[in-house]
């Protein structure tokens, strides 16, 4: 039986002095023993101990300095050419090139070719031995207990090729600029491919894969939007408003307004409704806005009026509202779109979601549904990120009572306890809460949040649930971590004096900026001792910080779909996770805000596979093991969760190896031709 740290001892490959490899030059030396073993496998005999290393062998591969030049490759100078070879060497215009090639085609060339092939194989083997999944792969090859994993990986690779053939290659091409046709392919834009993805056998496989710990989930944006909208339909005190009217000056529905309007919801008391005034969003004189001034409309009435004002439209109110909450392909990948523009849409959706989420009934039902969704997606442990702030507005269902941050904790913990009792703690092995507050807050507000976080940790009712502290919100628009340096240092000292630890789990590196204060957040996360970092997309641009984070065992919570849709990379193959893994930085896979991206954790796992042609099940095993290792579980709980997960993983591999996810025989021969 393994443990969560046992399989990652290879991380940070060692050079001959025992230090983590940090440069290509050190990798040549560090991999010398791999070169020897590869040489023996290929040639059948050991390489002498004093043989030259890779670097010197490459340098000597085409060298001819120690060999005399054949006489027949020199010709007499053509008349009219002035050439005075210096130091007895022939000038360039004195070579007979045909003779050069004829002479080169000698037995010595065969020797060079053989050495080239041997060297190519040895370097490839040495590099493979430095790969992040090498230890897991080797164990699968040499341990009988992992025989199913080895067979399952072979099936995994076959399914990948069949998915490409049966779904991507067979799909109708899409039209681009001036009618140019583009084939569909694995690893294209997520929102362009998601319908294809969900039809593949590999996606079914990922749904069934036990995924360990999910460590980066914004709690208010985890479920598909229809869930909260359906609850809101039955709430008498649910109101809706818009920044603009949805009709033109003649009272006709305005398609542009439908696209541009920013819709918000809230549970409101009768007094609040009276203070703001009721209005008709479908009236040309509607008083809109984004603050507390806009007139409000009862949501039930809105639902009644919408279809009457859209008699000639096929758009239903449900579809329209859901589309307002979910990123669409055209807006995400349109040529003018930028990361800034994507965040503008994201923030509008966050505001729209806030009121659908922030009342007692929704919070309770949402918590239970989230837990059920985690089970359905085969997640064993979760760390959720609710927002805590003094300005929180979580209401009782009648809109009369404001629930404070302690009350929010009670709502989550009570529903989790009920869920665990119902399921006898057999499906979700644990849940913790990361205390999050906006990075746009003032120093005093963040200080107050840190104080409250520590109070929760020291409270016997809440302490075991508090995983860590984080700042959230658009990184480039909020304060950099360094702005709160004094508050963070004071917090760490206060925690130490109280005999407890609340690790920082900072969002940072979620940016394309280079050389800005935002870009500097990675350095501050390192100095402040962050246990994990959220996103870390920019980390490969900081090799020293990346190396120091490796030494301090900092893990990166990678959110591939989120980073693509919010403008950091156009496609998964350009994601920095592959650079991080190539440098043996510990990473985990997370969804971030699945509500807005039409995704769940299985989709992000699929995308990791889509961007790396040689990704294996062994690699996914390593990522999952890291997720458990770098969680904030207590050590004894972590050990138990790992043991339970390992049993599930072995059973999963047997299912794959036994062909449960194979295509039917006729499917592999009946794929339609691409159009």
Report what the structure shows.
This is Adenosine deaminase-related growth factor. Residues 68-80 have a biased composition (Basic residues). By secondary structure, the chain is an alpha/beta fold. The protein has 3 domains: 6-69 and 96-138, no CATH class; 212-223 and 346-637, TIM Barrel (Alpha-Beta Barrel), CATH 3.20.20.140; 226-325, no CATH class. The protein is built from 28 helices and 15 strands. A 4-stranded parallel sheet has the order 3-7-10-11. The chain has a 4-stranded parallel sheet with strand order 12-13-14-15. Strands 5-4-6 form a 3-stranded antiparallel sheet. Helix 19 (443-458) links the parallel strand 10 and strand 11 (466-472). Helix 17 packs across helix 18 (405-423). The longest helix has 23 residues, at 107-129. It is globular, with a radius of gyration of 30 Å. The chain starts with 23 loop residues before the first helix and ends in an 18-residue tail after the last helix. The model is unreliable at 1-31 and 76-86 (pLDDT under 50).
The main sheet comes to: 4 strands, parallel
**Could you list the spans in which at least 5 consecutive residues all have pLDDT below 50?**
1-31, 76-86
Number of separate domains: 3
By CATH, the superfamily of the largest domain comes out as Metal-dependent hydrolases
Q: How many strand segments?
A: 15
Query: What do the pLDDT scores average to?
Result: 87
Strand order of the largest sheet: 3-7-10-11
Radius of gyration from CA coordinates: 30 Å
| Overall morphology | globular
Instruction: Give the CATH class of the largest domain.
Output: Alpha Beta
Alpha-carbon distance between the termini? 51 Å
How many individual helices? 28
CATH architecture descriptor of the largest domain: Alpha-Beta Barrel
What fraction of residues sit in β-strands?
5-15%
According to CATH, the fold-level topology of the largest domain is TIM Barrel
SS-based structural class? alpha/beta
């Amino acid at each position: 039986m393994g443990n969560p740290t046992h399989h990652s001892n290879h991380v940070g490959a060692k050079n001959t002095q025992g230090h983590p490899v940090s440069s290509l030059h050190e990798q040549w030396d560090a991999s010398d023993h791999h070169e020897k073993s590869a040489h023996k496998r290929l040639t059948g005999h050991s390489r002498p101990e004093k043989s030259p290393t890779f670097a010197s062998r490459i340098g000597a591969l085409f060298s001819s300095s120690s060999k005399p030049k054949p006489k027949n490759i020199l010709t007499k100078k053509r008349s009219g050419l002035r050439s005075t070879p210096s130091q007895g060497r022939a000038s360039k215009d004195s070579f007979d090139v045909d003779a050069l090639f004829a002479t080169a085609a000698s037995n010595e060339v065969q020797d060079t070719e053989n050495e080239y092939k041997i060297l190519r194989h040895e370097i490839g083997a040495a590099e493979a031995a430095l790969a992040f999944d090498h230890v897991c792969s080797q164990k699968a090859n040499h341990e009988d207990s992992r025989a199913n994993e080895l067979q399952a990986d072979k099936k995994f690779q076959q399914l990948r090729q069949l998915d490409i053939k049966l779904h991507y290659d067979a799909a109708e091409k899409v039209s681009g600029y001036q009618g140019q046709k583009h084939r569909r392919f694995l690893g294209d834009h997520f929102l362009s491919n998601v319908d294809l993805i969900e039809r593949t056998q590999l996606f079914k496989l990922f749904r069934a894969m036990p995924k360990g710990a999910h460590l980066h989930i914004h709690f208010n944006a985890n479920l598909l939007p229809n869930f909260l909208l359906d609850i809101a339909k039955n709430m008498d005190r649910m109101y809706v408003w818009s920044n603009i009217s949805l009709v033109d000056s003649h009272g006709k529905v305005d398609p542009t307004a439908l696209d541009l309007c920013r819709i918000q919801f809230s549970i409101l008391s009768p007094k609040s409704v009276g203070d703001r005034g009721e209005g008709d969003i479908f009236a040309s004189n509607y008083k809109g806005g984004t603050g507390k001034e806009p007139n409000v409309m009862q949501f039930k009435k809105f639902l009644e009026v919408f279809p009457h004002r859209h008699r000639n439209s096929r758009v239903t109110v449900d579809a329209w509202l859901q589309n307002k909450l979910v990123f669409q392909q055209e807006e995400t990948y349109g040529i003018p779109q930028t990361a800034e523009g994507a965040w503008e849409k994201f923030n509008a959706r966050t505001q729209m979601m806030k009121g659908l989420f922030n009342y007692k009934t929704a919070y309770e039902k949402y918590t239970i549904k989230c837990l059920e969704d985690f089970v359905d997606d085969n997640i064993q442990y979760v760390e959720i990120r609710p927002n805590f702030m003094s300005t929180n507005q979580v209401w009782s269902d009648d809109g009369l009572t404001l629930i404070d941050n302690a009350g929010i904790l009670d709502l989550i913990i009570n529903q989790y306890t009920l869920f665990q009792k119902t399921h006898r703690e057999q499906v979700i092995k644990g849940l913790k809460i990361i205390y999050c507050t906006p990075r746009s807050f003032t120093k005093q507000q963040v200080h107050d949040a840190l104080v409250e976080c520590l109070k929760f940790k020291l409270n016997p009712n809440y302490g075991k649930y508090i995983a860590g502290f984080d700042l959230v919100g658009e990184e480039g628009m909020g304060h950099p971590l360094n702005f709160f340096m004094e508050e963070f240092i004071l917090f760490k000292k206060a925690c130490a004096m109280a005999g407890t630890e609340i690790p920082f789990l900072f969002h940072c590196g979620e940016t394309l900026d280079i050389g800005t204060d935002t870009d500097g957040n990675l350095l501050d996360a390192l100095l402040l001792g962050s246990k994990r970092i959220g996103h870390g997309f920019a980390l490969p641009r900081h090799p020293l910080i990346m190396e120091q984070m490796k030494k301090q065992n900092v893990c990166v919570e990678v959110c591939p779909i989120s980073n693509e849709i919010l403008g950091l990379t156009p496609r998964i193959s350009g994601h920095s996770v592959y650079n991080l893994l190539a440098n043996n930085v510990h990473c985990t896979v997370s969804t971030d805000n699945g509500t807005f991206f039409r995704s769940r954790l299985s989709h992000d796992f699929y995308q990791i596979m889509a961007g790396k042609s040689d990704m294996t099940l062994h690699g996914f095993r390593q990522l999952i093991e890291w997720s458990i290792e770098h969680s904030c579980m207590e050590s004894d709980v972590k050990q138990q969760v790992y043991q339970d997960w390992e049993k599930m993983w072995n059973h999963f591999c047997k299912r794959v190896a036994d062909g449960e996810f194979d295509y039917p025989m006729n499917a592999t021969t009946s794929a339609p031709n691409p159009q």
